[in-house]
## 1
Amino acid sequence: MSITSKDIARICGVSRGTVDRALNNKPRIDPKTKEKILKVARELNYRPDLVARSLAKGETMSIGVVVFDIRNRYFAQLVNAIEKEAKKYGYLLNITLQEKDPEMEIKLIDNLVARRVDGLIICPVNKSNNFEKYLKNLKVPLIVIGNMVSQDIPFIGIDEYQAARDAVQLILSKNYRNIVFVCPPLHDKEKENIYSHEQRYKGFTDELEGKYIHYEIIDNWDYINAVDKLLPNLSEKTALLCSGDTFALEIMKHLRKKNIYVPNHIGIMGFDGIDILDYITPRLATVYNPVDTIGVHAFKNLIKLIKGEQIEKQVFIEYKVLEGESL
Amino acid sequence: MSITSKDIARICGVSRGTVDRALNNKPRIDPKTKEKILKVARELNYRPDLVARSLAKGETMSIGVVVFDIRNRYFAQLVNAIEKEAKKYGYLLNITLQEKDPEMEIKLIDNLVARRVDGLIICPVNKSNNFEKYLKNLKVPLIVIGNMVSQDIPFIGIDEYQAARDAVQLILSKNYRNIVFVCPPLHDKEKENIYSHEQRYKGFTDELEGKYIHYEIIDNWDYINAVDKLLPNLSEKTALLCSGDTFALEIMKHLRKKNIYVPNHIGIMGFDGIDILDYITPRLATVYNPVDTIGVHAFKNLIKLIKGEQIEKQVFIEYKVLEGESL
DNA sequence: TTGAAAGCGCTAACAG
DNA sequence: CTGTTAGCGCTTTCAA
């Protein structure tokens, strides 16, 4: 089919070893033969077969990425950042989406490992000790983003707990007396890795502890309805702290339909700082999660792991609480 | 390092050929030996090396995707759709971003081909006959999305020309007497593939031809300023038709700052129908581009090409003109 | 400086 | 039904 190094060797009347030396800038080769080989290679438009190279060298120069879904702004931004960084180092990304399906996640990781990716970056939906063991058994360099699996597996993210506390403080500073935390179901926590939401939840409750502020939790996929039920009896100035901007946006959209105004009737704050907030009015207060930085950092650390260097097990990137018009 | 089929053969006291038959459900093997081999494989947690398999079989079960950027909603949705479909068939995606850099695009495609992807899906930024030749020379099954390269290279998209005409009709039906088309620079067209914008531009002008409606074109990255200059002297009811929702959103954001109201002061319409429009008020009128369908279709056609089947060279997917509150 | 040979781990073809 | 062999295209080692 296409032209191989063997062909070039034959044409130039040299051995494949020599061709290899010429093509890959290796020492111990006569500049003249090198020149000739390169010329022929160019003329014939030779392209090394990277699959064969991978097999021979035991490295694929590709890294596997497993995330929820890239319709999700957060992951789109993340993957975008990782790809840009990876390109610089000649790495290719294998991007796969587990769609929050734990079994799917395992399948995808298995597949990536079977394809001999040099490393993995995952935002896992699995948790438990079994999963931790599973990951360790892979013997593949691995970075976890967002949902921590264990103290022992390299992680990069923000301090969600403290971020939630800071968010609550911002809300309190605006004189809200009733705060509602909106997040995905927390009771599934045995099955699904919802580390970040749990951390935020803990931060939320801890910060309000003993403060004589009324608060409640909506941890329910039907949160729109739950918010609806809340609305008629708001005796105090109320704000919703949403564990994810998308929840906040959905709620705002719903409230708009009902002609309930933010922040006049009710305050809202999000989490993550996804880029589309730029286009939304009122500007949503949120906790900005520097996802690009996280992506780049994750990739850099992964490279270190691949090279056998040491890295910090837990990296917490600085976040930022952003005021908006929604509080 | 990890366990190979050779190890299994040795342990089971059979040949590698037999192991292969057992592991890959091939005929001509005694159920008992098969059973034994499978058992050992399971116990040893054997995983076939897919790199080696690729080399041996001459197929990698992976396909390369080259798009602009996945911060861009359009591509995020597209890639998401392709990935979901690919997974069903056991294919893995190699996703790369050319960031509208023509040379980068070539590099990325070269790399993907060298990695022996079984097929390519690209939304090219390159154009010209040279590029067409280049693509044909690759001898790799290929589908082009969005920016057509030539009649001869399989393409999937919408009929941008007609869509633009339909959009203009919608605007006219709302009694606008002055229409401005906003799009990226058209004068670069020698260098950059801006097929879709050109088509829309043509549809726009053709539809207004002879209609005694005033219109102008802003094809300028500094379109915000250009719009600003327009504003003071709007004697007639004016609408902007933006060749991309993002342009429209940026403009709306800007107008909001200046307290200019849409659609009262000026009408706006977008193009693409990206998902985040759900969260934006006023609801943007747009041309809905069924990007998921396009992604799925592209992948299916690519598979056909890989299998050597015939496909239609040009596929036009149905679009939809969506009314909104912005006109 | 160059060549020859072995090997990466798998599949495929043929012979038994 | 099973084993043997060759080969995918590259890298690497050792010898010349």
## 2
Amino acid sequence: MKQLIRDLVSQALTALLAAHGSDVAIPEFLVENTKSREHGDFACNAAMAAAKLLGQKPRDLAAAIVANLPANANVAKVEIAGPGFLNFFMRAESMYAVIGDVLRLGAEFGRTNLGANEKLTVEYVSANPTGPMHVGHGRGAAYGSSLSNILSAAGFDVQREYYVNDYGRQMDIMATSLWLRYLDLHQITTRFPENAYKGAYVTEMAAPLAAEFGAAFVCDGEALMANLPPDESQGGDKDKHVDALIANAKSLLGAVKFRQIYDFALARLQAEIKAELVKFNVVHDEWFSERSLAESGALQSVVAALTERGQMETREGALWFKATEYGDEKDRVVVRENGQSTYFASDIAYLKNKFERGYDRAIYILGADHHGYIARLKAAASGLGIDPNRVEVDLVQFARLFKDGVEVSMGKRGGQFVTLADLREEVGTDAARFFYVMRSHEQHLDFDMELAKKQSSDNPVFYVQYAHARICRVFERLTERGLGAFDVALGVANLGLLSEARELSLIAAIGRFSEVINSAANSRSPHIIANYVRDLAAQLHGVYDSPPRLEILCADAGLRNARLALMAATRQVLKNGLALLGVAAPDSM
RNA sequence: GCGCCCGUAGCUCAGAUGGAUAGAGCACUAGCCUACGAAGUUAGGGGUCGGAGGUUCGAAUCCUUCCGGGCGCACCA
């Protein structure tokens, strides 16, 4: 409908420009939804936008546009208002078609072709497999998953990916931590480093490790603890301490056995993360292993390639990528003095790999603390000869969890933190997912756990789901009252009987769904969907409950089926909207 | 110190690409069920859009500057 108005106004403007003897292009203008009924259904700012170009006052030009507007059966009237807005009042019949569309398309209703099948890879969550996910990961998971759904609905070809950091120091620390717990089980005395993983989940993995490998990893505890530099509380450096311990562990155990422990920890932790994400309605098409980059030689070859392109420089024994040449604030180390590659080296290889797999664009969803990465990743792309605009980073701000009005600490200190699983078990997947995305991702989020559990209209998830369940109930009553089945064709044929303002307003809201999807996709903002679905639910409740009550199951078959068609369409759009957010639409509550 | 994000009603927040009288929810006040779910709904009060300049027909939105909050600035991952 907006496109129709845009075309009509364009035609009028073209005629006016021709009459003016000007051969310039039509200036940009907007067709918007109006905020109030007195401004009609759609408003257009073309007269204001073109006023300067044609040297006319906006209101005069608006009158000229109206005079040149081709007639159209869908337009009831056009008014000029305010500084020069063109307010379009549509014929009610022209708005009804959308109801038939919804009922015909079902779950497909709302899909658009904004993305034109552009191939995107969206990377999200990517939590290190060194422990359970915490509530911060939850927001990234909810956001990334919802955004992927939305982009897909908007016609992008979306691939969802999880980057598994299964390579490097953190996993070495993880393996060593597990081994120390295993040694505890075998009554071998060691000292647990301050920088190791202290969570109970590590201790809990020790028994299964012993069950699978028996005493294969038992060793001399004194030898393991020998020649270690002091830990932090002993006046030393915790990083140096733990690194020395890892070196001891590797030499005592040998590479094969160390790797066995490492793989054991990795497999279990990753399986836990996967299982939790499934419960959270979050899916990934690909779990991409960082280690595979090193083992396939991709890591080494990207370093070689960059060196060949003159993007690298050796300084103080280390190999640096000259990121400053591409707008980063400083150069970045890729290979350390000790010969080990950095995490950033893997990032570059991974970035290259993504584009080699044929994606038009790579979207990274990262926590807000990673904002320093944006310039770095884009510089890496430039260095590889890839247009940095094809690399997009969306940052998700932090979430704070509140329980009984007090903030729940998320610090990892002492292994005490609220896991995503804890949160999900307490409030449920639906509430958690909705709450995570109902605010802009650029905004800090206060997550109220009590509110998320409430069964009343204060709780937006409940409110929306309730609207869906209520409609389902109406259809149950239909059968119970012996009024016969819902006759879609009859309903659609009689939509003209829906003339109440609240019904028309609900129809208009349904008609906006596609546009809302596009808007959410363009601005990478799932919260737009959350707000929409809440507004739709409010309209539904309004139709349903505001006095005088609207009798849906009325005696007149035509009107009854028309109203049922509206109900069915509303239910479908609520369900489709919630599905984009990974939230269920239950039939009863 | 430098960089990124944020500041809108008592509280939590929407207001993409500048548009008409800045909107929701909560909380507060007053109404609405013999009813297809009241687990709901209707109405009301409530604002110097952090401050000050600027850009223009028009600024919460863009620019400058200041104030206030969050985060980041590793041969860590």
